[in-house]
Amino acid sequence: MSNPIPFSSVKPEPFVNAERAASFLDMPRKTLLGLARRGKLPAHGIPGKGQKKNWRFRISELDHWMRTEVTLVSDQGLSSERNYR
């Protein structure tokens, strides 16, 4: 009999729903879901009824996306966004 594989002491980051993710990003839920459907931000689609997906998100992935893909660059207070739309 083989020994069971021990569980890691590090717990994986939990997924959050669209409401929590939208709150973290300070954007409307509808906007978040549109970006998720278009593949513009990190999201994990879980198959639902028909073609509709239930979306789940990881806060760390959204934070990384904000830091690398949506960049505020300005001396005049103007924002420049990459890959947001």
Highlighted features:
3 helices, 4 strands, 85 residues, two-stranded antiparallel sheet
Q: How are the elements arranged and paired?
A:
Layout: H1 18-25, H2 29-37, E1 44-47, E2 53-56, H3 59-68, E3 70-71, E4 80-81
Antiparallel strand pairs: 1-2, 3-4
Helix pairs in contact: 1-2
Q: Helix content range of the residues, please?
A: 25-40%
Can you tell me the overall shape? extended
Largest β sheet strand count, sense and barrel closure: 2 strands, antiparallel
| Radius of gyration computed on alpha carbons | 17 Å
Number of helices: 3
Number of strands: 4
Describe this structure in words.
By secondary structure, the protein is α+β, with helices and mostly antiparallel strands. It has a domain at 18-71. Helix content is 32%, strand content 14%. It has 3 helices and 4 strands. The chain has helices at residues 18-25, 29-37, 59-68; strands spanning 44-47, 53-56, 70-71, 80-81. The strands form 2 sheets. The protein has a two-stranded antiparallel sheet. α1 crosses α2. The protein starts with 17 loop residues before the first helix and ends with a strand. The model has no long low-confidence stretch (mean pLDDT 83).
